[in-house]
Amino acid sequence: MAERGVQTVKLLLKKAKAEGNDPYRSLMNLRSTPLEDIGASPAQLLMGRRIRTRLPTTSQRLQPQMVTKTVQQLLETRQQKQREYFNQGTKALQQLQVGDTVRMWQQGVWNPAQVTGLSEHPRSYVVQMPDGQTYRRNRKFLRQSRDNQNVTQQNECDKIQGQSEMDMQSKNVTPTEFPSSPP
């Protein structure tokens, strides 16, 4: 936003110099031109009234008028619209619990880590790497890992497999191998 303002002023001064006009008059015209979304000029916002320019105008239009409340309402409306447009494509990430296994984005790679606590900052967690280092990371740099689910599923599979082996031993049944491809 500021860069655009600097660009506008530089262009204005170049044109004034090229045409041989007074640069201060050009700046005065820029300051007295109403802003598009607010409806008031920068000078009007600063001084509470319109400034006298080379254009003829009535003295009544030069009387002080406070436009701050109107401008403040317009700015709040514009910010609300920007917030709505920004949030259209977003979704809230699921909160992590202490002890969850996660993947942490670090130097271009997703590394395994574990959540050890919540941070005092919003949406931030304290995570510990397998080598013992702890970091505070924002939720957008943490992905919930399926390692928790895989460990649980693996433990359940081991239990089931252990039970089936015990059943086979109790029945004196020897396991047979099945061919990997049909005959």
Automatic annotation (TrEMBL):
Residues 144-183 are annotated as: Disordered. InterPro entries: RNaseH_sf (IPR036397). GO terms for molecular function: nucleic acid binding. Gene3D superfamilies: Ribonuclease H-like superfamily/Ribonuclease H. Residues 147-183 have a biased composition (Polar residues). PANTHER family: INTEGRASE CATALYTIC DOMAIN-CONTAINING PROTEIN-RELATED (PTHR33244), PEPTIDASE A2 DOMAIN-CONTAINING PROTEIN (PTHR33244:SF3). This is Uncharacterized protein. It comes from Oreochromis aureus. The lineage of its organism: Eukaryota, Metazoa, Chordata, Craniata, Vertebrata.
